[in-house]
Amino acid sequence: TVSVLYWREMPPTVQPPQPRVFPRHAPLFTSRQALLFALAYRVIVALFIMRSADAPDEWYQSVEVAYHVVFGRGELTWEWREGIRSFLYPLPIAAGFWLLKVLGLDSAWAVFAVPRVYAGVICGLIDWCSYAVARKFMHPSVLCGQVAYALSLTAWYNVFMGCRTLTNVVEGLMLLAAFLPESLDGFLFFAGLGCGMRATFALPLVPNLVDRVRALVAEAQEASLAGGVARHMQPASPGERERVQRAAAVRCLVGIAVRCVAWAVFWIAAIAGVDYLFYKRWICTPWAFLHFNVFRGLSALFGVNPWWWYLPLIPFILGAPILLLLGLPAAMKADPHTFRAPGAPPTAAQRHSTFVRLVLVTVVVLIGSYSILPHKELRFIYPAVPPCLLLCAAAWVHDKRLWRWRKALVVVFLIHFVGFAGTTSLFWQQGPDSVMAHIRSAPLPPGASLGPPRNHRIRMLVPCHWSLAFSGAHELMSSIEHTNCTIDVDPATPPGAPKRALPMEHHLWIDFPLETAMWEFLGTDPAESHAIAERQRTEARFKADPTLFRRQLGDPLFETSVAEMPATLRSRVKPKSKRFPHRFVLFRSYSQWLEEPFLLPNGYEHERSVWHHPVDQSLGMDRYVEIWRRKVVPAAGDGEPGM
Question: Mean pLDDT, to the nearest integer, of 80-84?
Fold first, then answer.
């Protein structure tokens, strides 16, 4: 009885926390195999699957600029005339075009394919860098690396946005690559390369730089004390040790500052040299970019969004994997008793936790700093996607609940990936690609020829730089023209007031298509053509189908009112300044508006309609794009010399 009572009075034994033991994971593939598969996968996607478009910048900040340099044709947008873009990014594409030209292989399809292959290679390198960064800094390295690699390959936004020739994609690659080098010089190389393409890219690099400086200073302080012990000169007092460490930290910081300045001078000189070859004058494009967009605030002319605009869109661009961030607290724990892997060093847990925190701060700084800028676009925060996927991988591996449901989550992620990536790649804004594919394959219209002299003119009556230009069809056309969207600041803007842009031809075309077309091509006075438009507006077919130029059924989209339209059109667009082309490309709602008073009387016939978008869009775009060709040979003086 005594023994039983004594046993009952004994305090319960407290069991020490049992570490979560990860099984030993053998690598499923080598680093080289991961690189080769990612490159092949992305090139195939970019070249044969990607049929959608996102923004004109994917052509007019890279592909068309490179084409202009190598082949001497094509239009440069206002950004290149103002000198706020560096030729550093289009340079590899220009090298590919030049190689095709020298070898005599510059067919229309080859010229079209070079930028696609380049975009696929960049996105494939992002996949591989995600794998390499996770293998190097996360714990357990093999499992985290493979999960990060899989998430990157199956991220729908990496398909939709990553396989495009946008500078934002290269920024994402540089942000990941900057994590890899052990040395400060390696980091500064990738940082300078990214800042050369977009100056604001320096902001998300600050956390990485601060972490490296902190580590270098701590290492220098430890080395100073260790050096004193080796020379039998160990400081005698805590104050003396503090003085020695402070002196070592100052020397280290001075050395870091010198190296940063040296790399900055190197990249400024390199970028200036590359830009001199393009602009034929000395110019500092990063400064010009900051001066135009940030200091003068002229990026607001493209639209102003609230500071929180990016926040609700982050779950959209990450998709289903954002659920994994619920396990982020588990991934940030530094306690080595929480998790361990066979063969891992004792400091692996601490290094993993420190790196996860660094990536999280980088993402917060990137999104926060870009949120301050007034003009926002979803592609601007693409560099945040690869780091977010790294956080998702760490959270998935280290959260027991999420890992327990890994098979179900894999199915959910794959279904989400196929649905989103397939829809946005094949059915979302595919009009530009389909139009160029038709031009490359369709017979020439009457009167057009491939020369010599070449004479095949195309006029895009679509919103501002809506599609590719010469790089989409190369030698199959002599000229291609879009509506003008050059920004001209209103000189009458009062000092201190927000800058106001004068109406563009692009704006006038969207709001007053018939008046603009008849003024540009025929010289018909806007007041007279507006009367024709008013008579058409009373027709039953325009009232029954609101998609038939819906903007003309209500108020204009832009600032030019109906009363101001005649005077604005006369001042901003020259009369009879355009020659009739062999083909018009325009949206169906516009073609039905222009068909009877403009297209048919001038000898045009409908050639083909192509799918563009599943729903009607703003800015004068709808579901179908139409191609109209001139069925009669232009009269003398109605054409232009072939090129």
Answer: 82
